[in-house]
Structures are given as structure tokens and as C-alpha cells.
């Protein structure tokens, strides 16, 4: 996959301290990047050759091309 053609998600924090964690691709899945968002902040994240999953902790709205998801926390 070309990094410039990876899928994007948008994360909007609904509370203070929402964590967005990027996980690596490959034999061993590891954390490789963490962002902390304050209420109202938005992060645009991309799946790449190095990022296979994105984990979100806290109360947030997640927007993808498949729809919008609200976390339960």
C-alpha cells in the first residue's frame, strides 16, 4: 500500500485527555505513536505501511468513510 493512498479517520475529542494510539504492522504489533487530545480537538490520522490499527481511549467521535462512531466512555 502506498502511504499517500492509505485510509484516513477523523477523531474529535468529546472530553479532556482522549488518547489516540497508532499500532504497528508486521509480525509483532506494538504501539508506535500516541496523541492526547483535549475536548474539541480534532486529529486526522492515516493508515500507512507502518500503521495497521488505531486505538482510541476516551469519549470521542470517530469519522471514517464507513460512517461515524461514538465511543461509550
UniProtKB/TrEMBL annotation:
GO terms for biological process: DNA-templated transcription termination; regulation of DNA-templated transcription. Keywords: RNA-binding, Transcription, Transcription regulation. One of its GO terms (molecular function) is RNA binding. It comes from the Bacteria. Residues 5-72 form the Tryptophan RNA-binding attenuator protein domain. Pfam families: TrpBP. Oligomer of 11 identical subunits arranged in doughnut-like structure. Belongs to the MtrB family. This is Transcription attenuation protein MtrB. It comes from Paenibacillus beijingensis.
Amino acid at each position: 500500500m502506498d502511504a499517500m493512498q492509505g485510509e484516513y479517520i477523523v477523531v474529535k475529542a468529546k472530553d479532556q485527555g482522549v488518547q489516540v494510539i497508532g499500532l504497528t504492522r508486521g509480525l509483532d504489533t506494538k504501539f508506535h505513536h500516541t496523541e492526547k487530545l483535549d475536548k474539541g480537538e480534532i486529529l486526522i490520522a492515516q493508515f500507512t505501511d507502518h500503521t495497521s490499527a488505531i486505538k482510541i481511549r476516551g469519549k470521542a467521535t470517530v469519522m471514517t468513510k464507513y460512517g461515524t462512531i461514538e465511543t461509550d466512555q
